[in-house]
Write a structure and sequence with these properties.
Oligomer: single chain
Number of helices: 8
Number of strands: 9
Distance between the termini: 34 Å
Helix content: 25-40%
Bound molecules: zinc ion
Largest sheet: 5 strands, antiparallel
Strand order of the largest sheet: 5-8-7-6-9
Low-confidence stretches: 283-310
Strand content: 15-25%
Mean pLDDT: 85
Amino acid sequence: MDRCLWWHADCENPIGSHSLSECWLRAVSDEGKSIVLRLNASKAGKEPVKIVSELDGVSRISVFKGFCSTHDNKIFNPIDRLDFEATKENCCLATYRSVCHAVASKYAVASTYLQTPNVLKSESPSELDKVAIKTMRECIDLMALKQQYEAWMNREIATEPIEHKFAFIEPRLPFCGSVTFLPCVTPTGRMLDVDQTWMSIVVLPWKSGSLVIFAIDRKSPKNGSLVVKMFNSIPQVWKADILFKYMIECGENIAIAPKWWFELREGVRNDILNRSFRNVRTSSTAPSNLFLQRGVPLTPCRHTIQGSAA
Ligand SMILES: [Zn+2]
């Protein structure tokens, strides 16, 4: 998109905006670098397409073509710190940015499809066409959600359209990330009837631990509320594991502490990469059955980083 994503102003020249604040990324980094999971695009044609882990500098991680520099600084300044107050306005900023990141990602994919001549013209759509149509629909849905956020942020509507719930986990989790997705399964493995209602989860380093922010659309809160209710019902020791799975299976916007990553056994790291690839390969936001198994020991007991990283 060539416009700044803050549509209330008509500005151009979006910069590379962080969808995760740089100070959050620094808190899960070693010497300014974190682990990211991404497609091996640079090896295209030389090795099979897959997700690989890479060490990258925090100034490059989670960057997307989002806001102009004025709005990027002005809008998100209140949450660009590790001790911001968890008010509903600030939580709204964190999840709004996740929605904007999702809009930009879907838009980029949809535009690529639109440049493919056959898409949308065929009388019997191919599988590729179906994916293209689905992506475009999702992009439009997310734009509508983004506008709801902005209407509230601009005080055009009195009631917050999105309800925010929090959890605080201590000590700090070895990752931060955000995901906006259609919830299909609860943390306890209950399958949900998918109703095209998006929810967001943001996990960020906060004070001496990690803050988890859930955003639920008030218009149709059933699935989102169930996810949060079940999340609250599971033992504390499973919570990091579940959040990590939502991040890698329903999205790709995550930064992982290198120290923690390299301490994992190779088999565990490969399992994480496979779970993450499933999301890309199937173009689905639905977690797989793998999600229902606690096959990967990602429990926070041993694998946490202390608050000193702040
Ligand atoms: Zn702007």
